[in-house]
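We treat protein structure as text, and this decision shapes the records that our systems exchange. The tokens are whole numbers drawn from a learned vocabulary of local backbone shapes. One such record is reproduced below, unchanged from the form in which we store it:
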Amino acid sequence: MIQTSLFGATASRRRFLKSGLMSLAPLALQNSATQAQSGSKKPAICLFSKPLQALNPRELAEFCVTLGVEGVDLTVRPEGHVLPEQVTKDLPSAVRILAASGLKVSMITTAIVDPDDAATVAIIQTAGDLGIPYLKLGYYHYQQFDDIPATLQQVRRKVQAIGELCQRHKIQAGFHNHSGAYVGAALWDLHEILHDLPEPWVGSYFDGAHATLEGGDAGWRIGMNLLLPRIKMVAVKDFRWQRIPGERYSKAEFGPLGEGEVRWDEILEVLKKAGFSGPISLHVEYTAAQDNSRKEQERVMKLMRKDLSSLQNALRQRGLI
């Protein structure tokens, strides 16, 4: 993990951001050229880096090349591969290291929730200058359930302001639908938040597993179709309901792709018909490398290869890759 140090004064941070523009420009041009040369307008698979937090960027690059993915969904958040306090220095460095191995940062996963937070502008500006096309927002939580409309309006105002920052720096933001007491877990709430916000710059980061967990048989379908015109990115994972001894209720247990409750065949058909072409982030969060040893990397690699193969086959069957 890249080490952290605290931001200096606001004026110093602004001078640093401005002085870094020239060094970031070549990376932005390289990233844009790579996208233009592909010209396929088809989704590309990237690997969510969270399960590989024990690996530094060079080790992460080697792992991803061996695995056979073309992109990385890089964590840029507390305890991530890039820490918010260090983003102006460490994100360009990570992008260079990954690019040297032929990998692109297809998107970044952030904890951004407040447009007025000092790190928010730094992350959005740095990522935009690097030509990274997408970022995932952080999470908003329901503290109480007795004034939901007020909560939605408060979140909407924050997301709108963040969307304006994204527009300024030419990077698209996705709101992830996480199950539980998270704002947006109910997809119609997310639709309400996103309605009339600047469509090119803020939309849905659709997670079929969390949508199924909250939506059951038809709720995910209703919500997905509401959000379909605004889906920017897609997170891929699977889960099963497990009965835990001694517990009254079943719990969701995430596991191998294609062996759980998520109807990915149906979800992918919807995406195909809609002409979806954003990044597909493969989440293999039911396992994580405990250290950066070769043995541990090989264990995780075996599980990730199985899920990657399942996803690639499903996408090929539908002409999505």
Notes: The CA atoms of residues 99 and 105 lie 8 Å apart.
